[in-house]
From TrEMBL:
PANTHER family: SUGAR-1-PHOSPHATE GUANYL TRANSFERASE (PTHR22572). This is CBS domain-containing protein. Pfam families: CBS (PF00571), NTP_transferase (PF00483). It comes from Tepidibacter formicigenes DSM 15518. It comes from the Bacteria. The lineage of its organism: Bacteria, Bacillati, Bacillota, Clostridia, Peptostreptococcales. Residues 1-57 form the CBS domain. Keywords: CBS domain.
Length: 350
């Protein structure tokens, strides 16, 4: 990666900043002037906070730029930088010369390649029929479709492993033998895999109930057709720190209405908005759950996670949202599958 790949100007929109962070997969945009002198930084966390606070992606970068960001001069020592990473709890540090021109960026992950292993489990839903992807899924379960040079499920497991989450549960039903033959106990992939067998279609929450013997700590649930560069550790930390029953990893989804939209009071037009963009957050198919919610799931029956979430909301318990600002793709249709293959090596082979 060239450091210029993460450079941005103060008048860039937040949408452009989000694209830079997404495509670089480095979690940061460095805001510079026309001479590449450091102005500040915007991290994926800054973008998430902006979205949660209702700030539009059309706003300028300067609105949320951290002008008091941490930086080091180019004569830094490794020990000095490591101490900053630990004391400041940050993941990226710009490096500047004597004129404050950005000449490099140091990334925490480059200094600490082995993430600390966590005890939390991740339950991956891999038992669906994949009917919307037929004929591709007539002989193979959807999570085993190859995107890039490997099955979707392998990429999901690798991403979790790289963040230290090595306790993997895979919920299986349709053509489960193909998944088990490929991954076996997970040892060859650097993880430990146990399989949850759905005797019939159980729904996401129903599969959670079947797996409850493993789930005594906060855990992930992930759809088996999702490709993402989401920082799973940040998601888990956010979930625990906010004491949520469930945290939904969400994706901003805009709907562009190609017409003038009328606002009516009875039969009178009081406002006309030409071709508005409607902003929504949608579920990204990734969740963190407190094991306490499992008691709310009935035994041995189909129960979807949306039903569980609605139940918890009615009980006035806390459901959180964690915006996904990194790459994310739900492979639900043939066109999604083709696009994922086109993008894979750019996103995941860095």
């Amino acid at each position: 990666m060239k450091i210029q790949d993460v450079f941005a100007k103060p008048d860039f929109s937040l949408k452009e900043i989000m694209k830079i962070i997404d495509e670089s997969a480095k979690g940061i945009a460095v805001i510079v002037d026309d001479s590449d002198k450091l102005i500040g930084t915007i991290t994926d966390g800054d973008i998430r906070r902006a979205l949660l606070n209702g700030i539009s992606l059309e706003e300028k970068a300067k609105k949320i730029t951290n002008t008091n960001c941490v930086f080091v001069h180019k004569d830094y020592s490794d020990t000095f930088v490591k101490n900053i990473f630990i004391s400041k709890q940050i993941l990226q540090i710009p490096v500047v010369d004597e004129h404050m021109k950005v000449v490099d960026i140091i990334f925490f992950n480059d200094l600490h390649t082995n993430a600390k292993e966590k005890e939390n489990y991740a339950l991956i839903m891999a038992g669906g029929l994949g009917t919307r992807l037929r004929p591709l899924t007539e002989e193979i379960p959807k999570p085993m479709l190859r995107v890039g040079d490997r099955p979707i499920l392998e990429t999901i497991i690798t991403q979790l492993r790289d963040f230290g989450y090595k306790n993997i549960l895979v919920s299986v039903n349709y053509k489960s033998n193909i998944i088990e033959d490929y991954f076996q106990d997970g040892k060859n992939f650097g993880v430990k895999i146990d399989y949850i067998y759905e005797p019939k279609r159980m729904g996401t929450a129903g599969a959670i109930k079947l797996a409850q013997q493993y789930l005594d700590k906060h855990f992930f649930v992930i759809n088996g057709d999702i490709l993402t560069k989401l920082n799973f550790e940040k998601l888990m930390n956010y979930h625990i720190e906010n004491e949520n029953c469930i945290t939904i990893a969400s994706r901003k989804y805009d709907i562009n209405v190609p017409y003038g939209v009328l606002e009516l009071q009875e039969d009178k037009v009081v406002k006309l908005t030409e071709k508005p963009t409607i902003n929504n957050f949608v579920s990204g198919g990734i969740y963190c759950l407190d094991p306490k919610v499992i008691k709310d799931i009935p035994d041995f029956e189909y129960y979807d996670i949306t039903t569980l979430i609605e139940k918890i909301i009615k009980e006035n318990k806390c459901i959180g949202s964690f915006p996904i600002t990194e790459y994310w793709m739900d492979i639900g249709y043939i066109e999604d599958y083709n696009r994922a293959n086109e993008e894979y090596f750019k996103i995941f082979k860095r």
